[in-house]
Amino acid sequence: MTHLQAGLSPETLEKARLELNENPDTLHQDIQEVRDMVITRPDIGFLRTDDAFILRFLRARKFHHFEAFRLLAQYFEYRQQNLDMFKSFKATDPGIKQALKDGFPGGLANLDHYGRKILVLFAANWDQSRYTLVDILRAILLSLEAMIEDPELQVNGFVLIIDWSNFTFKQASKLTPSMLRLAIEGLQDSFPARFGGIHFVNQPWYIHALYTVIRPFLKEKTRKRTQFKGKNKSLMLCYYSAIDALNLKSQSVVDPTVLKRMDKNEEENMQPLLSLD
Q1: How far is CA 80 from CA 164, 190, 211, in A?
Q2: Is 96 exposed, middle or buried (0-12, 13-18, 19+ CB in 10 A)?
Q3: What single-letter DSSP state applies at residue 275?
Q4: What is the pLDDT of residue 232?
Q5: Nearby residues of 147 by Cβ (< 8 Å), 6 or more positions away
Q6: Torsion-angle region of 166 (φ positive above 0: left; ψ -120 to 50: alpha; else: beta)
Q7: pLDDT at position 212
Q8: pTM as predicted
Q9: What is the pLDDT of residues 204-257, one digit of tens each?
């Protein structure tokens, strides 16, 4: 084991070997092969090419060198093409701060049985008067940047649950094709994270309609891992039991009939992924 694998448990080391083709004997060579490709894209400013940074891209693409490099290039290209999104890219930015405080995204305290981080979005919590959809995307990307520092999550990945309870048609009308494509490009095509599943819960008919719009932009693997659960009772029982582990007040977050933005007295019960100052 090299120092680059020092943060991994024995179980995760074995998983990285079997599922991701990670080999400690060739790890530095693998990283260097990706780094050597940087010169082929002089149009991109690669702001980081250190070993630890490149390794997360190799893990995200199962150590296929070219695919890892392509993801690395897309990561920086996305930021160059969307400069405004990454200005004031920090938790204290007003829009990002409000989105984080409303749970975009929230994270369960416990990992799933595969060691994956469970992220939860309550769509109806979006307060259009205080921040935009772009702010929500920025908050999610910033949170992922913090979490992907954890080598365990680089290997094990994430699961995303989106609860659409009480998400109105008026809110859905703001989910334009261009906005949805921006999100897909940022999360699916340009970020070194492994998403093991995307679950839609309590979705209304117009969310199904929106999905048909974005489906052509999704990779086949993403389409297979996107599941519409509706009001599946067995899933919801497990889902809400897991949510309870957050120690959040059920009336403010969990109960779909009374989903609303937390007021000042409830904020102390939140567990945002990033500390807010």
Answers
A1: 32, 12, 28
A2: buried
A3: -
A4: 53
A5: 107, 117, 153, 158, 273
A6: left
A7: 82
A8: 0.82
A9: 778 778 888 778 777 787 777 776 666 654 454 455 555 554 443 322 222 323
Residues 246-259 pLDDT 10s = 443 322 222 323 22
Q: Is the link from the previous residue into 151 a cis peptide, with omega within 30 of 0?
A: no
Strands annotated E in the chain: 106-107, 117-122, 158-163, 195-201, 226-230
Please report, for residues 17, 37, 93, 194, the alpha-carbon distance to residue 67 in angstroms, rounded to integers and kept in the order given. Answer: 18, 11, 33, 14
Look at the chain and count its residues.
277
Structure tokens that stand for 156 in this block = 């094990």
CA distance 247 to 139: 22
Q: Residue 254's pLDDT is what?
A: 26
Residue 202: partners with Cβ closer than 8 Å, 6 or more residues away: 163, 164, 165, 230, 231, 256
**φ, ψ for residue 245, nearest 5 deg:** -65, -15
Q: How far apart are CA 66 and CA 85, in angstroms?
A: 27
